[in-house]
Fold:
Amino acid sequence: MINKEKFKWIAVFTALFLLFAGVITSLAIAIGNKPVEVKTEGQDVSAAAEDNPMVMLTMGNATIFRAAPEVSKVDTPEQVYVSQTVTATITPSTVVDKYVTWSVAWANDAPLKDKNISDYIKVTDDSQGNLTATVNCYKSFKGSKAILTCTTRQGGKTGTVNIVYEGVPSSMSITAPTGVTKYNLGKDSVDLLYVGKSYSLNLAMDNIFHSVGSNFNDFTVTVSGVGSVTCGSYSQSGRGAGWSSHSNIVDFNKIAKEFVTCSTSGNTLSINVTKSLYDYYESKETKIVEGNGETTTYTNKLYSINTDSDGNKPYLIVKVQHKTLGFSAQYKFFIGEEVSKVTTSKATITF
Structure:
């Protein structure tokens, strides 16, 4: 049988243990429910703040991101979005409490005002409390305007940024003109454009939302060449004509501009093929032979087109690049003469 005195002490210790466990549990719950205060780096929130802060906002550059799906939505495809940064400047600079909050909402007259704005635009969670915010755009909201608001914790001062969708393009492709055929360079094939012809090519711009505006047509156009040709000296006189030499290898890139002129208008690239490869010459000189007055003309011109180490003949490249946005596209082609007529050696064959 248990001694009564021992039983009494066991009961006392058990009660004390349960009381101590209850206190610990209560403290843990209280700590877990305590609000977390976010502070910007180096901020002393206990110091006195200025009475009248002012917020000014500046916009950063756009960046395209491809975000992985959330763990809870592993069956959904990747989410693609465009990101912009906005920086708030609080005036005066001596303000101590620089904590700000960011929010975005549709403008009162936005056609999409009844739609959930977070399906289109979001301010990232890590922007709260910071002077720089990141705004993500997930799809086109063309025709509607949103308002990004930055609010100071001290004084409730606000600054705003209008958010609009203009359909800024981020890429471009060049559509080949209709009716052109392919030319086999050797290893590769490119479009064949004919001498004396003009061609119109569509500049198709795009972005990740496949919704592009119409005011982004500021381009530069450059012409270059790939490969090489051989030039030589060709002489002509009353006694005949022929090549006196033909060993000068010329980089085709140096002479590519001689054969075409290019320009853009709106979303159209125009290419005008002005002359044949074999119409190219570097120089021409005429000499008169003393005594008989006979003239001889010496022309340094194209003798042959060469095949490079990749097995291709020379070809031209037209590059179209947006002046401010930087994206570009190029079009490769070869130029040749169009058939003008066919003649036969005989008009009639008789058996």
About this structure: The longest helix spans residues 4-33. The chain has two helices and 21 strands. The first strand starts at residue 54 and ends at 59.
